[in-house]
Design a protein that fits this description.
Blueprint: H1 10-29
């Protein structure tokens, strides 16, 4: 399991989205009907998304401001 908030260049994000898509597609391709002998049940959840920047807030003391 992984949880991360990262800042990457657009080209890096595009490449990783493709790789993540390909990994999940490959896993689906290797799946067999439920309870097929010699298989193991696996649960897989993948969510990766681009976050929208926060709108700028005030500039008062303690204000974290935008990302």
């Amino acid at each position: 399991m992984t949880d991360a908030e990262l800042w990457v260049e657009p080209a890096v994000w595009t490449e990783y989205r493709k790789r993540l898509h390909d990994l999940m597609h490959e896993l689906h391709e290797h799946s067999r009907p439920p309870r097929t002998p010699g298989t193991a049940p696996v649960g897989a959840t993948l969510m990766a998304f681009e976050m929208a920047p926060r709108k700028a807030q005030g500039t008062g003391p303690g204000d974290p401001g935008p990302y």
